[in-house]
Amino acid sequence: MKKFLALILLIATTTTLLANSDQKTFENQKEIPTPQPMLNSQKITHFPINNSSFTYISIGANVTLLLPIPVPGVNIGYREKYKSFALDMSLYLNSLIVANAIGGKVKFLKNLSNTYIGGGITGGTAFVLDTPIIAGGNPFFTIGKESKNNFYEFDVAIIGISNLGFSINPTFAFSYGYKF
């Protein structure tokens, strides 16, 4: 098999060279071009990370039209701040003792001084007595205000998708966070 493949490679190479007899090779090429450094090229710079990036824990509550009572919750997360925007990643736990939800959130926030606006996506699973009953996620909008040691924010989600299908279920969440 190896001899057969070597023969095919030899025939293909010979055919290519015969078909392009005026093609330059390294032996008959007078000058081999070498890459030239770019003149006046700009140095690639990255957005400097703002020294106010932080880890946080927050407490809050969610209210939805399907369950119109406040559901308390806790988030733990990290917010990476850049010049004019921030990326926020967190894990959450919401609990009503017999019914719980766990999941994660990712947010993109636009910094406006000490106020921010943005949006993100959340995904998670709801449990009733240790039995998963629904898994899904939804996009949401967020607005918040930040100070030196803490922040508070308000999230609004309208639509969602889960293992039960697409749903329109307005959800409102408020949280107060402490930076550390």
Write the layout of secondary structure elements.
Blueprint: H1 2-19, E1 54-64, E2 71-81, E3 85-95, E4 99-112, E5 115-128, E6 131-146, E7 150-162, E8 165-179
Antiparallel strand pairs: 1-2, 1-8, 2-3, 3-4, 4-5, 5-6, 6-7, 7-8
Explained architecture:
The chain is mainly beta and 180 residues long. The protein has a single domain, classed as Porin. Helix content is 10%, strand content 58%. The chain contains 1 helix and 8 strands; from the N terminus they run αββββββββ. It has an 8-stranded antiparallel β-barrel with strand order 1-2-3-4-5-6-7-8. It is flat. The mean pLDDT is 84.
Order of helices and strands: HEEEEEEEE
Q: Tell me the Rg in angstroms.
A: 29 Å
Summarize the amount of helix as a percent range. Answer: 10-25%
Number of strands: 8
What is the domain total for the residues? 1
Strand order of the largest sheet: 1-2-3-4-5-6-7-8
Could you name the ranges where pLDDT drops below 50 across 5 or more consecutive residues? none
Task: For the structure shown, list the relevant keywords.
180 residues; mainly beta; Porin; 8-stranded antiparallel β-barrel; 1 helix; 8 strands
Please summarize what this structure is.
With 180 residues, the chain is mostly beta strands. Helices cover 10% and strands 58% of the residues.
